[in-house]
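Usage example:
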Amino acid sequence: MNILIIEDEAKTARELKEMVQGLGSGLQVMDILPTVKTAVDWFQSHPPPDLVLSDIQLADGLCFDIFRTVKVPLRLTVSTTC
Amino acid sequence: MSALSQQSRLENARLKQENLQARLSLLQEQISPHFLFNSLGTLRTMVQEPPAREFIQRLSEVYRYLLGSRMADMVELKAELDFTQAYLHILRERFEDALIADIQIPAAYYNKKIPPATLQLLIENAVKHNVATIETPLRIRIFVDGADRLVVSNSLQRKTVANESPGTGTGLSNIRERYRILTGSDISIKEEVDGFSVSVFLLDSRS
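Running the assembly step on the lines above writes:
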């Protein structure tokens, strides 16, 4: 399964990546993207991932802004700081 | 007569209740800081990694300063700068290389006075309204200008958030208002294409 992480805080993104990779060898983290802008660009040049794990408040806006621009069918899990 | 005495008994009970409530709130306020600092101290002993221990230490310093200075109108600039370093340490752990801060204050200004947490509020404001990523790091500079004013400047790379107003301006107007009341002087805000800065007057130690 190909997973994309959208998260602007480097430490949180790294930890999430390690957690995902620790779950099994069938899970690949395709990329870590910190902003709405980089995510929009990414979706225009990559095949859609099987799952997106995304923070809500990104460095330059909300993750929902990405999916107003990018219309791809995908599974999305959003999370926010607890 | 009996109705009246019953009413006064009720009144009495209500006052007792209010008094207890006030004393409880006071106790809670006294207990929570100690609890926080003790817990942070305990946490530090439970952690071996030096960066994590340092982070806990700095977090503790930040809260000690905020609690200790919240009743004060003015603090010495040196104390405010030490607190600012602790606060920046915490922010840098969070933002890593996306936040670059540079503080250049000559020691001659250390005993000047400033309303507590002014620098922290200005830094918080910069971080809140600007994009900070590794590709476009947020740069914050703190220095003294030619007119002996303390300046906090940052690179301007505004967040463009669709469903949030670009800022209500409460943060800055709070600082402005506080400055007017405490010092009688105004803060100066300058916005340019690629930079934003706020300058505030420093007060002499005798005032």
